[in-house]
Amino acid sequence: MHWQDTQIAVVEHGGRFFALNGWNDEYFDRCWECSSKDGKKFDSIVGDETYRIWHDENGVRLEPNCFGAKESTEYMYKVLVPYSGAANSLSGEILRAVLCIENKESRIDGAIKFLENHIDDSATLELLEFIKNGDGSKFAELKSRIESDIYSKFLANEFIDNYEDFEDLAD
To answer: Of 14, 27, 82, 103, whose CB count within 10 A is highest?
Structure first.
């Protein structure tokens, strides 16, 4: 079961609250209030501007998505990284490539090439060079730098469409 099947996001838009679910890797595509399939107007309302509705033994609760740092990163991964296949956003595909390296999957060379093509920061590229040369000692630092950069873009709602699958770059 997908995490959005058990969690409803509630957004405040123009002084009104809308209950949304049906995250389709780009935006919430269902609005419960208006039964609309057009959720485009909610495509940038993520993270701290959303609310969660929980139904448990104590009834229904509405609470803001105020995450701690670790939970925020986890939320970012849930939104940006699909279960399988290429991510729809460049940030999501970069995170997929990092996970590929972390999990020592078979197409690491494609992940490294993808990161080299899409990372501009020279310090991050230097860390990536260690990985490329088979030295994993700097991986935690590399991952942290990439996550920090993407998280700042995530909070600023900076999404760039992705049309590449890093696995296609593998030798």
So the answer is: 27
Domain positions in the chain are: 3-64, 69-169
Q: What is the pTM of this model?
A: 0.60
> At how many degrees (to 10) do helices 122-132 and 108-118 cross?
160
What one-character-per-residue DSSP string does 16-56 give? EEEEEEEE-SSSEEEETTTTBS--GGGTT--GGGEEEEEEE
Query: Residues of the chain whose pLDDT is less than 70?
Result: 1-56, 59-71, 83-84
Angle, vertex CA 73, rays to CA 70 and CA 78, nearest 5: 125
- Could you tell me which residues are beta bridge partners of residue 9? 20, 52
Angle in degrees, 0-180, between the axes of helices 108-118 and 90-102, rounded to the nearest 10: 140
On whether the CB atoms of residues 91 and 157 are closer than 8 A, the answer is no
Output the DSSP codes for 66-114: ---HHHHHHHHHHHHS-SSS--SBHHHHHHHHHHHHHTT-TTHHHHHHH
Among 126, 124, 68, residue whose Cα is nearest residue 94: 124
How far is it, in rounded angstroms, from Cα 144 to Cα 43?
Answer: 26
